Amino acid sequence: MAYSRLRRTSDQRKALLRDLVTDIIIHESITTTEAKAKELKKLADEMITLAKDGSLSARRKAAETVRFEEVKEGQNALQKLFDELGPRFKDRKGGYTRIIKTVPRRGDAAPMAIIEFV
């Protein structure tokens, strides 16, 4: 999948997107810049598609991207993805996330957006 560069080197970009996709899985809604939200949408939708499959290979492929952060006692982000989010969207064909544009950020007037699961 081709990504926008987001003015970062490839390792920084990969780390940023991994952090963002883990955060959206944990919190189900995050506020970020529009450009980051548009790139995150692609990755988050891909993770939900893997979670709907639920196979071991899908779980391993998702584990390459999603960080092992604690959601609640005894559950990490990957487990939440496969146990809660995957079954929630099992009847949906695509479009698991939505981007809502908000007011520009104070300071640098960067266009901001809220990205959340539908």
What is this structure, in a nutshell?
The protein has helices at 10-27, 34-53, 56-63, 77-88, and strands at 29-33, 70-72, 75-76, 97-101, 112-117. It has 118 residues and is an alpha+beta fold.
Describe this structure in words.
This protein starts with 9 loop residues before the first helix and ends with a strand. It has a three-stranded antiparallel beta sheet, with helices on one face. It has a two-stranded antiparallel sheet with strand order 2-3. It has one domain: 50s Ribosomal Protein L17, Chain: A (Alpha-Beta Complex), CATH 3.90.1030.10. The radius of gyration is 14 Å and the shape is globular. By secondary structure, it is an alpha+beta fold. The longest helix has 20 residues, at 34-53. Helices cover 49% and strands 18% of the residues. It has four helices and five strands.
User: In what order do the strands lie side by side in the largest sheet?
Assistant: 1-5-4
Task: Classify the helix fraction into a percent range.
Answer: 40-55%
Major sheet characteristics: 3 strands, antiparallel
Named at the architecture level, the CATH assignment is: Alpha-Beta Complex
The number of strands is 5
CATH level 4 superfamily? Ribosomal protein L17
Question: Taking Cα atoms only, what radius of gyration do you get, to the nearest Å?
Answer: 14 Å
What is the level 1 CATH name? Alpha Beta
Q: What average pLDDT do the residues reach?
A: 93
Quote the distance from N terminus to C terminus. 23 Å
CATH topology: 50s Ribosomal Protein L17, Chain: A
Strand content: 15-25%
